[in-house]
Amino acid sequence: MLKKKLKITFKNKRLTIDLVIYFLLVIVSTAAMGRHHNNYILSVAVYFFAVYTISGYRYFKSFVLLPLFIITWIYLPIGMVYGSPNIGMIASLFDTTKEETLEFLSNIPSDIYPFSVALFFLIGIFACRKTSYQFKSHVPLVIGLICLCLSPYKNLLYGGYDSVTDYFVQEKALEDAFSHKVNLEVQHVKPKYQNYIVVIGESMRRDYMSLYGYPTKTTPYLDTANGLFLNGYISTAPNTITSLSRTLSLSKGLTYEPSINFINLANSAGFKSYWISNQGKMGVWDTPITKFAILSDEEHFLKNGAYDGSINYQDSKLLPLFNQALAESTQQHKLIVVHLMGSHPEFCQRIKHDVYGLEDKQLSCYLSSYREFDQLMKKMVESLKMTKQSYSLMYFSDHGLSNEHQKDQFVYMTHGSYHKSNYEVPFFMLSSDSHQHQLVKKPVSAYHFLSLFSDWTGITSEKVAPLSIEQINDKNIKVFNFTNMVNFSDLAPDPAVKISR
After folding, report:
1. How many angstroms separate the CA atoms of 182 and 180, rounded?
2. 485 or 287, greater pLDDT
3. Nearest to residue 450, comparing CAs of 441, 442, 459, 437?
């Protein structure tokens, strides 16, 4: 009797250890499957029950659960930072350079590593430990597999599959659209200026610019420069590829028409177009944004794939190419697109000097990138003035960033889609006939960019209706959050972190 009792107790202890391991595996791995789970407790309970029942079948434990846990471990750093798989994430995976991949890995917050290490050891224990029980009936297995399909894994696996499928569908559409130049049937051309400059920024939030009220001087030149400065411009999406694809071509939301884009519009109107970029060109794996560049009459990239893609060029290195395009003699009106690396993470690799010297190094470098951008704008305007020709320079950033930090901790700036700051970006125009500093507070969606560009350049086409900032009346702006169109007003606030000197 005593032996039987001891045997039962030992069995119960083994089962208890199994359940503790399952519980820890479920809690840690759930963090890799997206940040926002509806009914979190219910999701964890369903996931735990699935692991418990499937583990009672040796082969399903080894060939279903174990591979899923390994996939989860690989994805965990990405999932904890960016959430469930989405098309923006997949596009970044396929359309990125080796340099950007290494930067991403080096930019993973240190507090994620304990989760990764813990999950690694838990998976090892799970793989080596023999389950203390075995089910003979197939009914628990069926229930367990159904629960697994309803668990947070649906975000990881289904979201991943849908995102990859959508990515390749869009890539095929892009290939078809960019296989040749398209005439957009221009009806009328009446440009006001000789030189039109579009400067596309990177990862710059509006609220960190002293131009828009940040208490630290981050943009001293722009603070007093003559021009029109829009306070209320909202980007279409929260990362470069998804945002610029929808900004630079005709789009109203989830999809876009890549052939109807601002380069084709300028080319159809007889402009001489240039694309000058500090973002990488990857050859056969060109990003959608690179494909816009290929449509221009002349393209110049500081970085080209594996040859020199590991080099971090300062945006100021674009100035000689910019001046060369300005100096080229032509009777045509010019459109010069300048694509910056701007404030893309890692910030400290983007700048020449850390101007602020803060203890919070990342915030210090981020703000320093604003100062260098401000000086670049000053030098570009000086170059434009030296030509003695009329000009207008339009600037906007593709998207913003999130402040992922707790109170009294250092700032961790990263891509995201849940905050207003991911979409609140600067927009301004500096023109040769601007004689005052005009700050306009008005909500304007970047989905209007093609219409704004048409009005700005004086190009009227059957495909694009011109609109001025004054004519736009946006009341309920929607943004693409990698998955759906959502109301911008419903997003969470994410105020800028002020520094004390």
Report:
1. 6
2. 485
3. 459
Instruction: Identify the three-state secondary structure at position 328.
Output: coil
Q: Are strands 459-461 and 186-189 parallel, antiparallel or unpaired?
A: antiparallel
Q: For 159-175, write each residue's pLDDT tens digit.
A: 788 878 877 877 777 67
Spatial separation of the C-alpha atoms in residues 246 and 237, rounded to whole Å = 8
The SS3 assignment for 61 reads helix
- 152/75 Cα distance (integer angstroms): 13
The rounded radius of gyration (Å) of the Cα atoms in the chain is 26
> Are the beta carbons of 413 and 403 closer than 8 angstroms?
yes
Average pLDDT of the residues in 112-121: 90
Q: Where are the domains of the chain?
A: 2-166, 193-470
So what's the pLDDT on residue 412? 82
**3-state class percentages of the chain: helix first, strand second, coil last, to nearest 5:** 50, 15, 35
Cα–Cα distance measured from residue 442 to residue 460, given in angstroms and rounded to the nearest whole number: 25
Q: How far is CA 467 from the centre of its chain?
A: 27
- How far apart, in Å, are the Cα atoms of 71 and each of 64, 115, 153, 164, 404? 11, 14, 11, 16, 25
Q: Give the Cα separation of 377 and 226 in Å (integer).
A: 12
**Confidence class of residue 309 from pLDDT cuts 50, 70 and 90?**
very low
HEC secondary structure over 387-417 = CCCCEEEEEEECCCCEECCCCCCCCCEECCC
pTM: 0.81
Tell me how crowded residue 191 is: count the other CB atoms within 10 A of its CB.
Answer: 21
* Dist CA 22 CA 52 (whole Å): 7
For 262, other C-beta atoms within 10 Å of its C-beta total 27
What distance in Å separates the CA atoms of residue 415 and residue 421, rounded to the nearest whole number? 10
Q: What length does the chain have?
A: 501
CA-closest candidate to residue 40, choices 51, 26, 53? 26
> Residue 159, SS3?
helix
Beta bridge partner(s), residue 74: none
CB atoms within 10 A of CB 18: 20
Paired sense of beta strands 437-445 and 227-234, if any = parallel
Strand pairing partners for 479?
486
> Quick one: 241 exposed, middle or buried, by C-beta within 10 A (0-12, 13-18, 19+)?
buried
pLDDT tens sequence across 321-342:
999 999 998 889 999 999 999 9
- Planar angle of CA 173, 176, 178, nearest 5 degrees: 105
Instruction: Quote the CATH superfamily of domain 193-470.
Output: Alkaline Phosphatase, subunit A (3.40.720.10)
What pLDDT score was predicted for residue 413? 86
